[in-house]
Amino acid sequence: MHMIVHQADFSKGNVYKLVMRVSLPLIVAELVNLLYNMVDRIYIGHIPDVGSVALTGLGLCFPVISLISAFAKLFGSNGGAPLSAMARGRGDNKEAGLVMGNSFLLSVITGFVLMVIVLVFTKPILYAFGASDSTYPFACDYLRIYALGSVPVLITLSMTAFINSQGFASVGMITVLIGAVLNIILDPILIFLFHMGVKGAAIATVFSQTVSCIFVILFLSGKNAVIRLRTRDMHLSPSRAWKIISLGTSGFVMGATNSVVQLVCNRCAFIWGGDLYVGVMTILNSVREVFSTFTNGISSGASPVMSFNYGARDGERVMKASNAVLSIVFVYSLVVWAFVFSFPRLMAMLFTDDEMMLSASVSALHIYFFGFFFMAFQSAGQQTFVALGKAGYAIFFSLFRKVIIVVPLTIALPYIFGVNGVMLAEPISNVIGGLAAYLTMRHIVFPELRGMDGKSPASEVKQGT
Number of C-alpha atoms within 13 angstroms, CB side, residue 49? Predict the structure, then answer.
């Protein structure tokens, strides 16, 4: 593959500028990646006569899609990619290549297993997630086709993290851009022109992700990559796989618990508000994903900077990168909160023109996004733990925010506040979970970083407890 590529040097220059330089292509990539499913929702929500029901059916697929993405974090952005970056920081390129090869193989195997499970158990899965007889046909049509693309989807999402961790953020952006542009073009053609509806949206998504997958493999196996993807590095090592999975578990838990939370929210929304509020939850999740792209991009951009300098024992640069995540995301999320509070109907109109759903979504958005800026503390604390290989702490705070706080509150609060209680659980968890993760990280990690001499390489990846 012949292209002009630019690699970032994580060891030099102003850390804030470096984080922004690495993050900006990732933010664009996050936004573009979001278009895969977002465009599906926008088009499907406006299908004549059945748009609102079809949108609700598509929303029922989100927990499964989140779960597949969670495995990409397990082997890629939170597992293999930071390990590979730390190995490069120590000067051990051989180990960095072996980590990448093992991550690729794990992605292929897992993608195939997930495909089989979803295809076999589609109906019980969707009814468990809150499907009704009216929404199931739409959800089934989308999910079965999406499941067929599990392998290329998982490879694309997990291996793009290795492109970014080697400093080629612009290439990672192009990877996502190729697929998203294809999806945007194919969606209206298949949905409306060929009258394929929800099936057309799923086919467009899978085809687009497959093209992106081919691009990722070609780049990583080509001469431009610092660490190349080679078949000889794909023999599975139990100890190496364990390190990847141990470190990546925090990201997986975050994704998997998102799936669990979506499942619980859909069920509670259905119980307390019927199909209408399952559709409202689809809109809430969609708006949150739109505004989380910048946060995810900054966190992803800071992660390889922290991992590399941690491997090189430059604690001061690690702390500066962690502080950059907090300050940048805090200011951004304040602006987001103000915007959503001021224009909730405008956001909801992207996904539906049903007046009942619009009205319900306006009040739900006000509740759901209250105190959104506390997510800055969660992002800074969580990403620092992940980037430095402290998996134990990262896993705990993933579980703490989602499973220990959100799930019980989502079930309990509707008994007091009705269906609004389903939305109220999110802002409460942002405050408690965000502050707990960040303050603990400052107490545990920063003293260690201040004690680094910057001379000898880190001897191991500390897992945390």
Answer: 1
